[in-house]
Amino acid sequence: MSRFLQHPRLPDSPVRAALVSGEFPWLKDALDTLGITSIQTEEEHRLPKPVRFHPDLQVSPLYDKQMFVLRRSPLNNQLARQGFSVSETERWPEQTYPKDVLCGGLVWNSYLIGNPRGVDPAIQEAAQKQGLQFLPVGQGYCACSVALVDANHAITADRGLERALKAEGFEVLLIRPGFIELPGYDTGFIGGCSGKLAPDKMAFAGQLSSHPDGELIRAFILDCGISVTELKKGPLLDVGGILPLLQGEVERDEKIETIIQNRYFV
User: pTM value?
Assistant: First the structure.
């Protein structure tokens, strides 16, 4: 049996299904070998060409099984069949910034983090109804730029995001920008080449050793009690993130659930 994640992007049991880019067959194959079913994105011609398959620009997960997709997106039906409550963005995506980052906000704990000019108004409104606080930042590609490690730890190369998140009490590892491939752009982002596969497992599209801060990244993650899984050999590649959708059943423990709830919503 599979169930929904209690908190977007952060599973509390092994992941059973994930949303990934349909551009890279090897990504699906790698997850298949780990027993994870892949739902693949289609090419979204309304987005800039280098990122047309990227999940982190096509969807925006909120709490309570609510998932936003771009207007008239084929992912609407795919995610609805998985049991998600799917809504579409109010605005139409376009290839110019910030109209390409309608789904670029990041939900973490009790915050929706994003550029207020970029995050779609319908997503901002829905997040507010869920009791989330909007944390405004200059970076429009928040979901791409931040790799969530757990409830309190994250990694980014964006100094503005680092300052904003640390000001809210989060532990953030700032790494050097660059050294992540994204053909068509100068560089990709750390959130775009990673994702959680279990509470204690984090995956990367590529090898951390290809990044000059690779050992710092690995140590930061291991210090959180989380192992690193590298899904392919070679440089880190921004694939638009690996978004966990469904996870395995776990035995319920009301005391633990209360601790988790307090940890995320402080």
Answer: 0.93
